[in-house]
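EI: anyone free to look at a 211-residue chain?
SC: sure, send it
EI:
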Amino acid sequence: MSVISKLAASLNRRDEVPNQELAREIVEKDDTHAVQELISNLNNKSKEIQNDCIKVLYEIGELNPTLISSNYQEFLDLLHSKNNRLQWGAMMGLSCITIEKPKAIYSSLPQILKAADQGSVITKDHAINILIKLCTLQPYAESAFSLLCEQLLKSLPNQLPMYAERAMPIVNDKNRKEFIKALNSRLDDIDKESKRKRVEKVIKKMRVLEK
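SC: here you go
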């Protein structure tokens, strides 16, 4: 049976449960053929089918990134999609496979960050996740961290606290000053007191580690 028939849209369902169940089923069976069927239907004439396919693919990626790691080029191509759901879903897919395909993802950062700059908040969120993951890998850490700080300097004030908190585990003795400087420079941009306090809390924790 075609996996397309098991998608939420094919079942006239408006919830995501069928897509999540399908992802788990594909992972349990290590079904590479099903993955390729989903990939080939990312350009289905039905937008609902497209959306369900990307949903299942990144759900698979969260459970077993190896199953979708060879399809990084298809995800990169979707960063230009006019379908916002496909665009941010592709960015999420790339985030899932960053550790499996770091060289390919790193070399594609100009394209990834351009899509983030032009894309939705969710697209930006997952681009930040990609940079943070690359920061955990020695060959890419220094460059990825500099790019991460550039993103912090221009990120939306509402998103900045979350990005700062996510980045904390990859801050070390070599990059801590740069991180603190970037966050300090943004404090006046944050109007909402609760969000400013979150960033101040991150800065305070980083300064404690400096001593």
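EI: The chain has a mean pLDDT of 96.
SC: 👍
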